Amino acid sequence: MRILAKSDIGKARDMNQDNFYVAKEEDAIQLFVLADGMGGYKGGEIASSVAVYSAQNYICNNFENTPKEEEAIFKLLIDSIEYANLMVYERSKEDEEWKDMGTTLDVCLIYNNKAFIGHVGDSRVYRIRKNSMKRLTKDHSYVEQLVEDGKITKEEADSHPKKNMLVKAIGCNSLVEPDVMCKAFEKDDIILMCSDGLTNMLKEDEIYKILLENSENPVAALINSANREGGVDNITVIILDNIEKESEKEKEEIEK
User: Fold this and answer.
1) DSSP bridge pairs for 115
2) Domain residues for 68?
3) How many structural domains is the chain composed of?
4) pLDDT tens for the 256 residues of the chain, in order
């Protein structure tokens, strides 16, 4: 698997309030975490940093003793996100300037050719397979709810004035209920995790086109494109490309 990740401050912000964690290819636990913070001076940066560290630490400390069954791994993800939520919520009480801080949080654990995903907020996870790109997560936003209720169209949602209003986030309440899912992660699949600094600047078909046309350095291409469109927010992109290793390809050729 090829792992690519980068976070960029964008063109309009004074501070990068996104944070992420990516496992190394040789790590026993293939874990990837992304958070987009919000709230007050440094509040968003603290919220996203605490959330990423807490979720990553919880999973790495508990994965070995977790039964390797779908429901048990779901529970591990849920527990890690609930723990991260509580850590951010408690930290928000320490300073008046941090009282409204919160963050999105996406956790992706790759195990046994499957992607176990936990999600809160409006950062997104996509899967690219063959000739299509599919969004796996649902935005926990006011506008997404309007679309689901049939009150506005997807096109109207793109320019809605309350587009960035979240109905669920990490750290805003003592309890949170994350979405969890398990998706197959097959050979040549690509998983894209990103903050809304990317998806607010580029439409999904544009993101897909950039991925296809920039196989060597897709993360840089996506961030550069978002910045050319204005870069009004921080931009974080993680790409997990389930390509076959060169050594494995060579081995197959020798065996043939």
Assistant:
1) 110, 183
2) 2-255
3) 1
4) 999 999 999 999 999 999 999 999 899 999 999 999 998 778 999 999 999 999 999 999 999 999 999 999 999 999 999 999 999 999 999 998 898 899 999 999 999 999 999 999 999 999 999 989 999 999 999 999 998 889 988 888 888 888 889 999 999 999 999 999 999 999 999 999 999 999 999 999 999 999 999 999 999 999 999 999 999 999 999 999 999 765 444 444 444 4
CATH code (residue 69): 3.60.40.10
Q: What is the pTM of this model?
A: 0.93
Of 137, 144, 145, nearest to 158 by C-alpha is: 144
Beta bridge partners of 141: 166
